[in-house]
């Protein structure tokens, strides 16, 4: 299907200014259906971008392409060489102790000190040596975050990382992500279907619809964000209507 | 017109309290508290030995009173005597050593073949096309049925016995390792790719560990068939080993020797099972601990 695949995975070693992600005319078809259809997207260094969209609109498809997991595309995709991904499920290797999971894939010998430091950052110092199956959902998701951040990525791709967590844990892990982002200052693309989450965390909110970025607006409120200001609520209603939820029906997610 | 339950209820007093009082009393039971430890009484391990010991005692009694004669089935005491004698003559150790060696050599060959074939078939499309179809066809052949052919091809020395064991081991092991490799969670493979693991590292860190539980099930199963193959293999013209002792004893109606040999087979089988279990406990320590109550 892919007629003119052009993928360039560029590192910062070229010396010139590069964006962590630059997408031009990206099309991805499943059969005859174009899930992504001529999509353009730029992400600036250090920017926290939330990508909203209804279920099945192609959010994960886009993220997988940016993660270089899916090459059957047409168009141009340039993404930072140093990037990390965290999925809805933590996807830790169950047969490796937590700390070994963290540093797996890093060059050189498994560096325990580095793993410990990364785990301390996400508040898992007491879980360094356990098997991943022992972790609770929130802990496992935090470990997955540590595994992503230990790679010092220029671009962090998150695919609904909070959606499998219970409401309380979700709030905590969201706060943790905001905090880690402020320390690491990597660009983040957070895929989510939760409008409040997007508005609380992101600098910029996108809505994916009909295979393209249909909505692209900054969120300028100061951090930490209050979720009960008129601005917030107005933005929320606007986004929900973009997602096909009429005003009035928008209780909470 | 039928008067429904609804209608009748409206006739009742509207007062809620009266309604409550009219309800039939609710039966209540206290939930059972499970005891954490059975205090007192006989320890479980000791209790478990009761029925085997009882059976052996019954057997001994039946032999002593003459219900079981020696030519049918020797008594436990006689069998113990015989085992002791065989030990003193060195026959018992020799037989065990020879048989164990056969199993080990056959197992090593079968293990090697199964691991190589399953890995090739599991990891490479071409390997699958070349290897899996014939393996799936051959696995339906009962290995024991190959004995006549093996004798024609390899005579009656050690080869047919060892090859029989190797064949018995190869198929269950192959199927399980291949299945294990094929069922690796695609999500984990993806995660490994995003961590920058190359092909070889993916195989090492993801595919092989993921296939390990299934491979060990295959190993346990194939050890079982290895013992079966040994028993059958040793009945073909062996000049040493447990099966040889058994065959010789048959000619002289020495039921005591036969039982000693059966016990040897059983003990070796248990030992093999124990080794695999230990292996599982160490290699699969990452799995959530499972304990029977
Ligand atoms: N491997 C695939 N084969 C066929 N269809 C797919 C595949 N992956 C995704 N799709 C389809 O593409 C659409 C977008 O999927 P996805 O990106 O996962 O949606 P979401 O926005 O909910 O993450 C869905 O309709 C899905 O059925
Ligand atoms: Mg998705």
From TrEMBL, chain A:
GO terms for biological process: carbohydrate metabolic process. Signal peptide: none annotated. GO terms for molecular function: ATP binding; ATP hydrolysis activity; hydrolase activity, hydrolyzing O-glycosyl compounds. Pfam families: ABC_tran (PF00005). InterPro entries: AAA+_ATPase, ABC_transporter-like_ATP-bd, ABC_transporter-like_CS, ABC_transporter_ATP-bind, Glyco_hydro_18_chit_AS, P-loop_NTPase. Residues 21-235 form the ABC transporter domain. Gene3D superfamilies: P-loop containing nucleotide triphosphate hydrolases. The keyword ATP-binding applies. Keywords: ATP-binding, Cell membrane, Membrane, Nucleotide-binding, Translocase, Transport. It comes from the Bacteria. This is Sulfonate transport system ATP-binding protein. It comes from Tamaricihabitans halophyticus.
TrEMBL record, chain B:
It is a multi-pass membrane protein. The keyword Transport applies. Belongs to the binding-protein-dependent transport system permease family. It is found in: Cell membrane. Its main location: membrane. Residues 92-276 form the ABC transmembrane type-1 domain. Keywords: Cell membrane, Membrane, Transmembrane, Transmembrane helix, Transport. InterPro entries: MetI-like (IPR000515), MetI-like_sf (IPR035906). This is Sulfonate transport system permease protein. It comes from Tamaricihabitans halophyticus. The chain crosses the membrane at residues 103-124, 136-156, 162-181, 257-276. One of its GO terms (biological process) is alkanesulfonate transmembrane transport. The lineage of its organism: Bacteria, Bacillati, Actinomycetota, Actinomycetes, Pseudonocardiales. It holds the Pfam family BPD_transp_1. SUPFAM superfamilies: MetI-like. One of its GO terms (cellular component) is plasma membrane. The keyword Transmembrane applies.
